[in-house]
Design goal:
Blueprint (H helix, E strand, L loop, with lengths): L1 E5 L2 E8 L15 E6 L3 E5 L5 E6 L10 E4 L5 E5 L6 H5 L4 E4 L15 H18 L8 H12 L2 H15 L18 E4 L1 E2 L17 E2 L2 H15 L8 E5 L8 H14 L11 E6 L1 H6 L2 H8 L4 E9 L3 H7 L5 H17 L3 E9 L6 H13 L9 E5 L6 H5 L1 H9 L6 E3 L6
Parallel strand pairs: 9-12, 12-13, 13-14, 14-15, 15-16, 16-17
Antiparallel strand pairs: 1-2, 2-3, 3-4, 4-5, 5-6, 6-7, 7-8, 10-11
Helix pairs in contact: 2-3, 4-5, 5-6
Bound molecules: iron/sulfur cluster.
């Protein structure tokens, strides 16, 4: 690591963060990055000189353990400690991600109206100009080049660049699997199939497409263009998201081809981060139709694979209310199959989602607990069940008590269970 001090600004190049993701209750950075520290803020940049994190240093900053993250699609996410109380039990992480776009947000945090947070974003907007003033005189080559790149990566330029992701993929990634929390949602997206099977009425994140596999040629094209998009910073990634909403419904050959091809092309085996992960969504029908040979193939991939399945409910009235065209028998079969796979394949974890809300039919939770009783004789460490608060919860009182309502369920569930906060790429 090299450090420089210029006019009260400290710059560190070649910083090294942790080499593996871990769940800690303090700010931890991963991989390699550079940092510019002004008296007011700390700005951290990826290996392309693009802003990734900001935190405040002044007394007004809400909490020294909190920070802002800029995603590759140019969204802001504010990482709040949420007061720490019960946060891990709710989310499986020590931080509450406060998102700058509408989602099924159940937390009360609203950092995007906090003056200190807004000033941090504004300071970033003014940073290129501030750095331009430092460039006079002779600077060490490495420092001069770094400043040049950061100045050229202005907020406007990065916003333009972020649109490229959509052009490459041909669609927006409106939702990532909840399991992507294990790598702080830092995944390389690759679409192997568009759309989904059911197009449920309640779903606000569905793609405009019906389910259709992409060709191998298209997958190769995406990989090539994504490699250019991520540039040098690709070495800070160890995980892949195979989209879109039901990649498990694609043929096993295509899943294996895409995962291996991307692993090699993105050189995930020599990433700065250990423990490559693969994330995808499955569905009730794709789980039922996938025989053991599919999961044997997935288990042999050079990844730990997480497959998330939206089961939503095992109650007929609830499924009808949600506008999800599947039968309760199919949900029960899929759930049984998920447990079998979790027991049988060490490197595959299937997780499931159930809806959570105050205006669902009474049978919803009753049928859920029947499902638990029927399928578990003892607790199990794998196969997280996520509860997805419905976006249209209108009952303010219930929303305020969502944590308490969830904890009442959690204590009765024999596998890890958390709330699902819908996050996009
Ligand atoms: S919930 Fe899943 S299956 Fe239903 S419309 Fe949304 S993405 Fe498709």
């Amino acid at each position: 690591m090299e450090t420089f001090a210029l006019d009260g600004i400290q710059i560190a190049l070649g910083k090294e963060g942790a080499r593996a993701y871990s769940k800690v209750s303090y700010p931890l950075r991963y991989g390699r990055f550079a940092e510019i520290k002004t008296p007011e803020h700390v700005f951290q940049f990826n290996l392309n000189g693009e802003l990734k994190f900001i935190s405040g240093r002044g007394r007004n900053w809400p909490n020294p353990s909190e920070w802002l993250k800029r995603t590759i699609t140019d969204d802001w996410v504010y990482y709040s400690t949420g007061g720490y109380e019960g946060v891990f039990d709710c989310l499986g992480e020590y931080y509450v991600p406060c998102l700058s776009y509408p989602t099924n947000n159940f937390s009360a945090c609203d950092p995007f109206h906090d003056n200190a947070v807004l000033s941090a974003i504004q300071a970033w907007e003014l940073l290129p100009e501030r750095l331009t003033g430092l460039k006079g005189g002779s600077l060490p080559t490495e420092l001069g080049e770094f400043l040049e790149v950061v100045i050229s990566n202005s907020p406007g330029e990065l916003h333009k660049k972020s649109r490229r992701i959509r052009e490459i993929l041909g669609d927006d990634i409106t939702v990532l699997p909840p399991d992507a929390r294990h790598v702080d949602y830092d995944v390389i997206p690759l679409l192997i199939a568009d759309g989904c099977l059911y197009r449920c009425r309640f779903c606000r994140v569905k793609s405009r497409f019906h389910f259709k596999e992409r060709s191998r040629e298209d997958i190769r094209r995406q990989v090539k263009e994504l490699k250019d998009f991520f540039g040098r910073d690709i070495s800070n990634y160890n995980s892949l998201f195979l989209g879109q909403h039901d990649a498990l419904n694609a043929s096993a050959e295509l899943v294996e081809f895409a995962a291996r091809y991307a692993y090699d092309a993105f050189e995930l085996g020599s990433s700065h981060l250990e423990g490559p992960c693969l994330f995808l969504f499955g569905s009730v029908d794709s789980v039922i139709k996938s025989d053991d040979s599919v999961f044997e193939r997935i288990n042999r991939l050079p990844f730990r694979t997480y497959i998330n399945v939206g089961l939503e409910s095992s109650d007929a009235k609830t499924l009808h209310q949600l506008g999800k065209g599947i039968a309760t028998e199919a949900v029960e079969r899929a759930f049984g199959r998920i447990l079998e796979i979790n027991n049988r394949y060490e490197k595959v974890e299937m997780t499931s989602n159930f809806v959570f809300g105050d205006n669902l039919p009474e049978g919803h939770m009753q049928s859920f607990f029947n499902l638990m009783e029927k399928n578990f004789s003892h607790p199990f460490h794998k196969g997280t069940i996520y509860f997805s608060p419905l976006m249209d919860i209108k009952n303010g009182g219930w929303k305020k008590n969502i944590k308490r309502e969830f904890f009442k369920l959690k204590v009765r569930i024999p596998v890890p269970s958390f709330l699902y906060l819908i996050q996009r790429l």
